Amino acid sequence: MDTKTLLTPIEYLKGVGPGRADLLKTELGIHKFQDLLQFFPFRYIDKSRFYKISELQDSSAEVQILGKITNVHTVPMKRGKRLVAEFEDDTGAMELVWFRGHKWILENLKINAPYVIFGKLNYFNGSFSMPHPEIEELEKAKTKAQIKLQPVYPSTEKLSKRGISNRVISTLMLSLLEQSKTFQETLPNNVMSDLKLLSKTEAMQNVHFPQSAELLGKAQFRLKFEEFFYIQLQLLRKNAIHKIKIKGFTFKQVGDYFNSFYNSVLPFELTGAQKRVLKEIRKDLGSNAQMNRLLQGDVGSGKTIVALMTMLMAIDNGFQACLMAPTEILATQHYEGLSELCEPIGVEVELLTGSTKKKDRKILHERLRNGELHILIGTHALIEDTVQFKNLGLAVIDEQHRFGVAQRAKLWKKNSLPPHVLVMTATPIPRTLAMSLYGDLDVSVIDELPPGRKAIKTVHRYDSNRLKVFKFIKDEVDKGRQVYVVYPLIEESANFDYKDLMDGYASIEREFPKPTYQISIVHGKMKPEDKAYEMDRFVKGKTQIMVATTVIEVGVNVPNASLMIIESAERFGLSQLHQLRGRVGRGAEQSYCVLITGKKLSSDGKTRMETMTATNDGFEIAEVDLKLRGPGNLMGTQQSGVLDLKIADLVKDNQILKTARSYAHHVINADPNLQMEEHQMINLTYRVLFKDKTIWNYIS
């Protein structure tokens, strides 16, 4: 089928028409022929064999049986009546039951004629029955081209109500496939023969109407591979073209600032992982392409030091650097930490946020323009037009998923060539997901903790053990440590959550009376300045216990806090639990995390608690989270363009994803512009798939 036919509006398909077309568009997003072809079954009904009544099992499976009806009668019920037919084969008997449509059935059923019935079984008091079976005379069933595995397509309530049943969709699909006898091949011969793939035509036929279970498996593999192959091709090509087209500043030397920091200021020996990542960055900065690198590392793995040393490389080459953080608290903490490290080597660092005073801003802008300022740290305020650098060479972005593409684009315009970009995130993204979401960024991972960091001990306790937990809090506070107590926040029931928080606060106040103990509280209903005041008291150690909803921002650093209590832990996702746990364990003391839950836990809830107590490795946790929640929920919907997969599944099919990525790699390494003779078919398909290219694609 050629591209033009594939783009035909769905109303022109025989059997659709305007009314059905509207429903298909609104309910299933099917606008054109190709949308229907890519509407894949989510399961298949096996009609390849007949069961005997004697071998039926008590399961909800759908079965097909050959037999005859020996008698039909009605049975009165509280409301109305039901129609019951005795159905038997040579091994036993069962009942067929109808609750509606009696008249039609009574008129059409033949006693003692051979029938094929199909449907779900009910098992009651030792015997089987089948409500509302699909029923067909054996003679008629024989004449139909028997599709052994019948497709079942996703549906909605509205479609069922309006009579667009699974049978209707199957019929439309069949007529479309008959009309489009063949499909243009989209994969090159060497890939086809290497992986022994079905042709596109065979795969399309067998995914909708499989001739056998084996062919169905091959068809699914072929189509999943193709889907991943083109997504990976797009991301890798974007990355390759980016490196060719988008020139960056070349940092030729590692100079005095970097060396004197490394030799005399660096407070500890770098870990092997930090050294490896710095080498990767150094290589990027020395080439003439613009760096676009994602730096992943768990909470406390030392990303900030790597970022600072990267900034020093920029300064050594006569450039300025900036660091953009999502919140004021976070920006201030970065500023305090980095300016202390930079002071001994004479690097000038400033902070710019929404609350920087006007007269200070004026001086700051002046120093930025004349190049006296080396590093500027701040919030969104950095990208305002009034902020002008003398020579911005590197932008570091902390927790990138909080910044939109448009905001990052503004950073690009701060110099004649775009600055190098280093994106840091403490949210470990499973490898498979990183390949698909950030395939166009180069990824570096810091996967070991600095020496001297003790792993946080995590335990799970039920509500009934609360008094023991309070005693543990007392012991920690008496040792001079600080404690977080966190309550969940779920938008829909803000009042209920507020009550939870206030009840919790009251019980903690009773247990830890003033003046011996001081308690801070932070929640969403407070004014920002009150929040900041309470946070500040805790950071400075004036209060020992911080009671909060999950508004305690990513990255708040209180080295003296050694205990994290998470209330109603079953109401948090895994990555949230892991992020919260990372608030403690920042000092030299042994830290603890206590997960408190109710007695009743779902199986997912149990898995989450077991995972948290078993491991501190963010990547392991992210893998489990991906299995539990699926990719869409993990990244939020803003990334869903890449994840809008029609047949493949990132979790179940990650082996196919890896295979597809390595093939895409070969192609792009050999031929980034897809110009070689043997890649013409890929080029054509690629152009059809990704028609609207915009500059946004480069700014990622």
TrEMBL record:
One of its GO terms (molecular function) is helicase activity. It is an enzyme of class 5 (isomerase). Its EC number is 5.6.2.4. Residues 465-632 form the Helicase C-terminal domain. Keywords: ATP-binding, DNA damage, DNA recombination, DNA repair, DNA-binding, Helicase, Hydrolase, Isomerase, Nucleotide-binding. It catalyses: ATP + H2O = ADP + phosphate + H(+); Couples ATP hydrolysis with the unwinding of duplex DNA by translocating in the 3'-5' direction. Pfam families: DEAD, Helicase_C, RecG_dom3_C, RecG_wedge. Residues 284-446 form the Helicase ATP-binding domain. SMART domains: DEXDc, HELICc. Belongs to the helicase family. RecG subfamily. NCBIfam families: PRK10917.1-3, PRK10917.2-2, recG. This is ATP-dependent DNA helicase RecG. It comes from Psychroflexus lacisalsi.
